[in-house]
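Reopening this one. Same input as before:
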Amino acid sequence: MRSKKAYILIAAFLGAYILHLFFAFAEDVRGYGPSVATADAIVVLTGGLNRADEGLRLLREGRAEVLILSGVHADAGADSIFLNRINDSERARIVLDKVSSSTYENAVEVKRLVAERGYRSIILLTSAYHMKRAEFVFSRMMAPGLRMVTHSVSTPNYDQERWWAGGSLFVLVPEFLKYYWYAASLALAG
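Same output, byte for byte:
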């Protein structure tokens, strides 16, 4: 009987701790937003609404000389991604990473591109709910000294201010689990 109470207490403590981590995660995600910074390159992690269009908008504003779209489908081209809304000058400044298919692979491929091209700064652009994990992975993968600024976009499937309402919770919970999966995996990998 005594060990059953101990198990219940341990389970309650672990549940409370995980709940604490989740609320802290949700609060951190609320803190992400757009940036006014400039950099050598804008890195867009594809896979979410509004990301590529926001990257193009920043490129057109002169916030960087290059737009890297990381995680693009093998059959996609800049014209198909932007529905033929780009000119020749913009097309020449867009780099498509068709190799990566996860946040970790995005970081590996972007690290290679950044080193190859000698960039010293990037604007990391993704959805607000994905930014905490993306920033975590990229900060551990990029070369020391690279300046990284985050720039998140809003998406219709996630409300940063009311993350507990509607479908937002169903977006945030998997992201929370993925974040801690990546944290554990990278810690074990060294």
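So the earlier flakiness isn't reproducible anymore. For the record, The helical segments are 2-30, 51-60, 78-81, 88-92, 103-117, 128-141, 168-189.
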